[in-house]
Amino acid sequence: MSDHVGFLRLLRYQRRDLRGDAMAAITVTAYLIPQVMAYASLAGVPPQTGLAVIVVTMVIYALIGSSRLLSVGPESTTALMTAAVLAPLALGDATRYIALAATMALLVGLYALLAGVLRIGFIGDLLSRPVLIGYLSGVAVIMIVSQIGKVSGVDVAGQTIIEDVRSFATNLASSGAHLPTVAIGASVTIALLVLTPRFRRIPIPLIVMLAATAVVAVFDLTSEGVQTVGRVSADNLAVGLPSLASDDLGILLLPALGIFIVGYTDNVLTARAFASRSGQRIHNNQEFLGLGAANIGSSLVGGFPVSSSASRTVIAEASGARTQGYSIIAAALVVISVLAFSDVISAFPTAALGGVVVYAAIRLIDIAEFRRLWHFRRREFFIAVAAVVGVLVFDILYGVLAAIALSVVELLTRVARPHAAVLGQAEGVAGWHDIDDYPTATQIPGLLVFRYDSPLFFANAEDFSRRCRAAIDAADPQPQWFLLNMEGNTEVDITGLDALEEVRAHCADRGIVMTLDHVKSEVWGQLERHGVGQRIDRQFVFPTHPTAVAAYERWVDRLS
After folding, report:
1. How far apart are CA 560 and CA 553, in angstroms?
2. Is the entire prediction scored with pTM above 0.85?
């Protein structure tokens, strides 16, 4: 194993990172305690379960995962999906529900470990930067909408973002917002947006949270209806493997697969987003192992499926985190906090927590990146927009899958109609170049050199054949040799080779010798297995362009 495995990096921990990691751990702890309790309730398990899950999962991921900053544990999407799947199955039986949730986490973990062993992490490479930018922006909007009830005091109930917005608008019109709650939530968000960029070495989120808690206490705002976290307890946790009947296990296999796909997508996209900011690399297969082990750990403490939290990660980054050491420290602080400071934690105003989430969400929306995509290539900009819309309209899984499909289609449109060129020699420039780029370039009489800058496969086979034949037919006078530079044809399939055979036959019909250069050994083997290799003849296949040109000149000399 290399240093992309967490515990190997921690073995070489640098003291200079301790201050940033400690500050981040304090801030993240203040934020995550009420957050994970809320997500546990959202998933349908006791709130204290969230505390046990976050301790276990943060430590496990810190030791196994590849990201230096990612916070793995309870998060809203997998919590919501868990509740949606299990509520109809448990039928109000709390004990059975907990067992089902823990089994779901176990299955998700096993799926992830299997994917890591099979090394199918390459699927993470399908998540292009436009998809990443759009995904995070969509998640940010979901995060903001999920907090509008907490920061406004308006009751919000819905299963989708559209239902949440509709519920908020209806209840706001009928009962209005709770002004003290709005004031606290808005003040926290504004304070974080203004102060955090200016005081990067100070744990501003923690200070703002404590200030909001003090304001609520001093002015007795709880009597005015401001909600707080409430009692924190770690009693009655279920520890050990869940026990379920085989029938229940079979029912959960498919839903667990869906949650695994969503969880891994969330994990790798968020990890890559934060890694790109600091020049780090995320190893897709290691992420499978980290996520799998974290979910199995959650199952062992009676938890539920987990993934990564973009909000906790961005708060850790903003607070100075340098390594996963902050996760280890935060896990210890959670335990200490529950044992020693439960009264302080219980006094945190939920509106202030909502304000922190809104702040974190705003930081995830990268307007500059959307602008860069717009100026670079409009199609990639629209892929990012499609990812945003897909995540909001179709939920995270289907939204990301739709954006990935658009990315693949956009890629196919480019490789299906790649750059192709007739090559010549430009005065003062070494090598052979596109005569469209160098209008004064000259060609050797009787030698037509053509290059097609793409693998040859089903999507561009017809285009390749058409453009080769067009170049041959347009040459005046008719060439004696057609030299195909295959430097860019790094991969072929049978449809592409059928097209190459069409070009060869077109040359043969006109008495033109077809020759090749820069043919990769693997590609030549495929040409031979197809049959077009034998029809071209090995003597007309050259390792480099100069050797091909020299062979043509000798051929002409023999004719003369």
Report:
1. 11
2. no
